[in-house]
Design goal:
Chain lengths: 65, 255
Amino acid sequence: MKWISTFGRFWYDFVVGDSVVLAIGGCAVIVIGALLVWAGANAFTQIALPVIVVATLAASLRWPR
Amino acid sequence: MTGTALLVATAFLASAVEMVEALTIVLAVGLTRGWRTALIGMATAGAALAIVILALGPSLVRWVPLRGLQIVVGTLLLIFGLQWLRKAILRSSGLKAIHDEAAIFAREIEQLAADAAYGAGSMDWNGFVVSFKGVFLEGLEVAFIVLTFGANAGRFGPSIAGAVAAVVLVAGVGLLVHRPLSRVPENTIKFTVGVALTTFGTFWGGEGVGVDWRLGDVTLLLLAGFYAAAAFGLVAWLKATSASRSMATTEGSAA
């Protein structure tokens, strides 16, 4: 059992690291990108994605965890 | 061409940063527990990393559809890049202590020297584990970057070349100086790699979900420039807000 929790903690640290905001935000960026492309807004997506990425980064600096 | 140069440069810089950290640990083990233990631990970790890359690399390209790979890899690179960038921004703005290899080296030496002594001629498992873990864990992120860059680009050459050049350079300098490389501008490199990983993450993740980047590889340069400018802006913003906060605290305590 112990190795499962160690394994899980390793992956949590590896992916989430210091900021859960970035882990959730990173996934959200890709999901939003998929939704925008699906809605036919390819040109807008190319501007929106980098802006959302920077907003996620700013949010992670505001909320430490 | 733009993409290849960025691939090599990013793999080189990311590997250099992680290898400087691994070198600090190996040097601490070598000086306190003996070079035999330190080098066996380092070599075993290097072999384990090579097995991970050789086992996963070809199967990633062969079995996983490119679209799926781009989405997963793009998302992970984006998260990693933002983590590196966040740390670099916090350090540049003075809100987080600068990574100090000399201090880490001193702490490792103290801990290892305090551990129980071992019999002469026998294998020092404590030192081995510290050396192995240091190289393996620091190297795993590099292995991940090399793998994902190679898989997405459809060729592993550029990212492996960048990583190997960094390992050879850091190991060579480490052999020469026998001290932790505390003069490496680690935060600047972390900043650069953070920008690059975030750029590739956005680009590949976007491609994976169907974004058609109209400018092709030139988009990489535009994204990198935008993220670098935004990161500098965030450093300035954090400095300004922390300065105004400390001024308000000073005025409050004076009143």
